[in-house]
């Protein structure tokens, strides 16, 4: 595996005293590439970006591929005859492998003392620690998340379940960290459900591992808060704030440790996540909304004209059947430069696959352009004004839905 490193960049005191927002840089030993954070990853399903070939990915997209391990389990035999997943799929950019897929809801009962499960198109797949380590060695990701339990649904988790969650996750982590062949660039999952006490017990249990392996641990992921899937689009981050802040306080001595959390990151929640000091975000939200024919249309920079479309809209509506404007006025993506709302609507009605491609191209451009503006406003000390602008648009959107 290539060596990766992460470092934070100081911001002005006027930002850091109001929230934990921060800038950072990811660097790689084998390629001359720097990824600035906060950043969204590029979500990949079954080896490809949903509905888009690599040559059509907009230039402003962060090229850090997010490839969940569950989507690779069925390919283990094929990977035995290739150098790595990157060479198998012809991906030259860095790859991050989270243990679970942000888009796939987890079902209860998928963990045992010696295994944890991922969900694939073929159903549940058990991974014991040896099979997990073999998969990591075959894939050779730039960074990966350690195996964990995490089966802690908020309304069904007992004290006994939380204890098992901690014990199993610690056992899986210790086994991964004990294998020097996969030791580099690990993301450590922090579990314990939504129980503050159990989460702090688990963190105390593994602090020595973080300290002893600091050069090989890239970051931590806040896990066990939810069961993944579509419902996480509406996650209430305010309810998680005390737990996340206390955890970060205990990790304050580790200045250059990356923070991430799996979620379908709706733009208003992205703002809340950055206020909590998160650095890396799943890019699965783009695939999620594109599947539903939703167009991102919120204003994310001052070069965009005001519009009446709201923060987002469904292009599969008759009101756009004769729409002569682009999906979003003043958008610089390939779709908006070349096609109208009416044309995309027509493609949907005739069941042309091109409709999904054009929608995804726009949403990728819009979503990653949003993250570019986040970084620019953090650098320019205009974060507070920017965050208010985004949150106001989504507050109006939520009022419409109610």
From TrEMBL:
Q: Which InterPro entries match?
A: Queuine_tRNA-ribosyltrfase (IPR050852), TGT-like_sf (IPR036511), tRNA_ribo_trans-like (IPR002616)
Give every tRNA-guanine(15) transglycosylase-like domain span: 20-394
Superkingdom assignment:
Eukaryota
A biological process term (GO) from this entry = tRNA modification
Q: Supply the PANTHER family for this chain.
A: QUEUINE TRNA-RIBOSYLTRANSFERASE ACCESSORY SUBUNIT 2
Record's protein name = tRNA-guanine(15) transglycosylase-like domain-containing protein
Q: What is the lineage of its organism?
A: Eukaryota, Metazoa, Spiralia, Gnathifera, Rotifera
